[in-house]
Write a structure and sequence with these properties.
The protein has 303 residues and is α/β, with parallel strands linked by helices. It is built from 9 helices and 9 strands.
């Protein structure tokens, strides 16, 4: 008995030491690294920052362990593609991710009509004064999708995932400067979103990532746990779902495409609506697979 108590105490002590190490050593070092990286790209001109980030992504990204997640995801999503084709997509995916990192400190200098073209402006014009749910994916430079709110001059309240390290929370204040609140993912953010929707406000959602306690919805032919909140909001408030794609054209030139409201009937439930959303995502990704964030564990199991 005494031995077990001693072992238990030792385990508790180790767990406590890990927490202390994380809080007072790892978190500050991570925050310092974030400041250094952000400042480095900030002092560079946009085009150079983007190109430098892309070079780093191509040189280092493919060697990271997390790339195996992307590789397995692609193998199962594109069984018709050869190993060489998949490796080529991976290199270009890391180029896009690296460019996004380099561009992040410069997002507020990027504008529609400058280095971002807008398709579907007439759809935004038709929504003037009306409530809508704006949906995008981790595609292209997804930070730029908020420019639709700048164009339409309306608040857009967007969901976000709070960082594990509270010392890097400051980075959210450097994101695209648009009117609207940042809503933390989870019950708190969902309740606030409902309050805003009741007032006729617009909500922005990235719905392409895994949610463990979501609902299984087909995505690239396999069930993927999907957050149903978007569909539930659309049903409850009779709000149109407007999908917006940020597409990298070349270098730091982009195209934002605003699609017509997603069609769904009164008989559709959350599962069928989210399947339609996933179907649109699939179309985007099949056309330009290198621009999606494949390193996320979107499916429960990989090969």
């Amino acid at each position: 008995m005494g031995k077990r108590v001693c072992i238990g105490y030792s385990a508790e002590r180790r767990a406590s030491m890990k927490k202390i190490l994380k809080r007072y050593v790892c978190y500050p070092l991570e925050a310092l690294a974030a400041v250094i990286v952000f400042s480095f790209f900030k002092i560079l001109p946009l085009n150079i920052a983007s190109a430098t980030g892309g070079f780093i992504g191509r040189a280092i990204g493919a060697k990271l362990k997390v790339t195996n997640v992307a590789r397995d995801n692609m193998r199962q999503s594109f069984p018709e593609k050869s190993a060489d084709e998949i490796e080529n997509i991976i290199i270009r995916m890391w180029d896009n991710i690296g460019r996004n990192l380099g561009e992040f400190p410069h997002v507020n200098s990027m504008e529609i009509g400058k280095n971002v073209e807008l398709n579907g402006a007439e759809i935004l014009d038709s929504l003037h004064g009306k409530q809508a749910l704006f949906v995008t994916a981790h595609f292209g430079n997804w930070e730029l999708t908020g420019l639709v709110a700048k164009y339409g001059n309306f608040p857009l309240h967007s969901f976000y995932r709070a960082p594990n390290n509270p010392l890097v929370h400051w980075i959210y204040k450097t994101r695209l400067d648009i009117k609207g609140e940042l809503l933390p993912k989870g019950s708190v953010g969902a309740r606030r979103a409902i309050q805003l929707l009741r007032k006729g406000e617009n909500i922005g959602i990235l719905a392409d990532q895994k949610m463990n306690d979501g609902i299984p919805v087909e995505f690239f032919g396999r069930p993927a746990m999907t957050a149903p909140a978007l569909a539930q909001f659309a049903i409850k408030f009779n709000s149109p779902i407007i999908m917006v794609r940020s597409e990298r054209l070349e270098g730091t030139n982009f195209r934002l495409t605003v699609f017509p409201p997603l069609e769904f009937s009164d008989s559709d439930n959350a599962s069928t609506i989210m399947r339609k959303v996933n179907s649109v995502y699939e179309d985007w990704i099949r056309k330009k697979p290198e621009q999606w964030f494949w390193v996320h564990k979107r499916w429960s199991k990989t090969l």
